Amino acid sequence: MTEVLRLPVTMAATRKPLPRHDEQLHKWAAKLCAEAAHTRGYLDSQFERRDDGAVTVSLTFDSAATLAEWEASEQRVECLAVADRLTDGAPDPVPAVRLQPSGQPPRWRTAIVVWAGLFPFSLLFTATAGPVVATLPVLAQSLITSVVLVPLAVYIGIPVVNAVILRRGR
Hints:
This protein has helices at about 20-35, 65-70, 75-85, 105-130, 130-135, 140-165; strands at about 10-15, 40-50, 55-60, 90-95. By secondary structure, it is an alpha+beta fold.
């Protein structure tokens, strides 16, 4: 049986708020992204408010088929009905070249997640094995510390931190 390659698909659009509806449109964008997150095939979403108050929303799904399911869903139709009451004119599609690659968080976020996933184990290791390891040569200290801490962080700490972030809605 041949496996079909599924490529992620991102769609994006910008909406301009009616006068004095900037904040409601921003809240709407957050709600739209939250609704999409409950859809099969959802991978990522982003929204940003421009200086003129307009909001650009991008949604990424694992395939064109799951994007089509989202586009036909009642949740999306209801969200768009709300947006139509808040916006001036039709949404403007966003050129694909402006979209940032989906699935790759910014480096600062990755650094924080790695630190948060590593720190508890580092603290525990230093408190318990630190005095023993400190008697060894520096090379041995570094080797033992990294052999113990890296797998703990990669297989336990970082996944736990990511799960907490996802549960809180990023």
